[in-house]
# Entry
Amino acid sequence: MNLLASLSSAMLVLALAFPALAQDLDRVKSDLRKKFPDAQIDTVRKSGYGGLIEVTGGGDVFYTDEKTTFLLLGSLVDTKTRENVTEARVRKLSAIKFEALPLESAIKIVRGNGSRKIAIFEDPNCGYCKRFQRDLVGVTDLTMYVFLYPILSPDSTDKAKAVWCSADRPKAWLDLMLKDAAPGGSTACETPIDQIIAFGREKRITGTPTIFFEDGERVPGAIPIAQLEKRFADAKAAKK
# Structure
């Protein structure tokens, strides 16, 4: 058999296999929905690890087999690359296009040429947010969009409104986060805080800080500056 005939045979086998695979995965999805009618089942696909089938729903990732005899919750780690496959998949599922964020409702803070961009959902009473903002002081060429996301206490809402109603919002926010200087003035102006909270709930933003990079990737929680710099590099590469 010549090379052309061999390739044609291989392509035919693959073409016949794809419909069967799709039917198998559809059956898995159907079985799961029957067994767990209240669960959200979005996608089903081969994981590439030990015959496990990856299932996603509502931003979560879990695993099963072709007969749906079990559900496996937890992290799948590639022993060769040491990558947390589940975590990487969750990050991809939870990504939001940067331009889809309501940036007009954020406090914009620019350092240097502002070429590197992040968006952060923060609570005025969040200790991790304050520590992260202190770390960010040394980061250059940064444009930071801060979304006031007061979810920790009623006092958080009062402080967030006072910051938004300040004549200089970036200064009021940084004074609060870096110096613990409470913003003065009125809290009676119109703010976008309710809309931001509604957006965050819709997008399953459940904690602060939550960081978004230009490539849409979401990172829950504060991260070390070295990791931040790597994320900037990864986001820049992803945009090319």
Observations:
- Residues 167 and 185 are 9 Å apart (CA to CA).
